[in-house]
């Protein structure tokens, strides 16, 4: 059996050109790697696609099913955009980008209004509590005064 050094492939002479330093196609250069011992380019193993996409390519029925599912998804998106655009007042344009932009502005305005109303209701609630507390004191004092005025003095 020959020694291991004899089993290595003989280095091949390649003329140097600019493509050796700068690959023309990055996809092609990425597919090769240098062998650590001999410097001979080796082709990397291809990644096997998932079974579903592989089967879809082989089976046209599955591919057609995918097309139908994608079409239904797009139709559902379009229906939802139409319903969203009907909820937004003063909508000027009907393209999807404008609908989304106006919807986000409309929602932000409503969030600000809710915060403002919550702040007002919080101050009103405090005012009502103060009034009720004050009214209870007035009623209690009046009741106690009336009670003592009804007791005969000895």
Automatic annotation (TrEMBL):
<dbReference type="Pfam" id="PF00010">
    <property type="entry name" value="HLH"/>
</dbReference>
<keyword id="KW-0805">Transcription regulation</keyword>
<protein>
    <recommendedName>
        <fullName>BHLH domain-containing protein</fullName>
    </recommendedName>
</protein>
<feature type="region of interest" description="Disordered">
    <location>
        <begin position="1"/>
        <end position="31"/>
    </location>
</feature>
<dbReference type="GO" id="GO:0005634">
    <property type="term" value="C:nucleus"/>
</dbReference>
<dbReference type="GO" id="GO:0046983">
    <property type="term" value="F:protein dimerization activity"/>
</dbReference>
<dbReference type="InterPro" id="IPR011598">
    <property type="entry name" value="bHLH_dom"/>
</dbReference>
<feature type="domain" description="BHLH">
    <location>
        <begin position="61"/>
        <end position="110"/>
    </location>
</feature>
<keyword id="KW-0539">Nucleus</keyword>
<dbReference type="InterPro" id="IPR052610">
    <property type="entry name" value="bHLH_transcription_regulator"/>
</dbReference>
<dbReference type="InterPro" id="IPR036638">
    <property type="entry name" value="HLH_DNA-bd_sf"/>
</dbReference>
<keyword id="KW-0804">Transcription</keyword>
């Amino acid at each position: 059996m020959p020694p291991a050094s004899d089993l290595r492939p003989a280095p091949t002479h390649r003329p140097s050109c600019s493509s050796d330093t700068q690959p023309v196609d990055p996809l092609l250069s990425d597919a090769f790697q240098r062998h650590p011992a001999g410097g001979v380019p080796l082709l990397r193993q291809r990644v096997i696609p998932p079974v579903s996409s592989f089967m879809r390519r082989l089976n046209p029925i599955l591919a057609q099913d995918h097309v139908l599912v994608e079409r239904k998804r797009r139709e559902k998106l379009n229906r939802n955009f139409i319903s969203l655009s009907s909820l937004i007042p003063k909508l000027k344009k009907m393209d999807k980008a404008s609908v989304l932009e106006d919807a986000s502005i409309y929602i932000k305005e409503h969030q600000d209004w809710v915060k403002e109303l919550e702040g007002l209701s919080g101050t009103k609630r405090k005012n009502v509590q103060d009034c009720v507390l004050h009214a209870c004191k007035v009623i209690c004092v009046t009741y106690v005064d009336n009670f003592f005025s009804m007791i005969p003095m000895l």
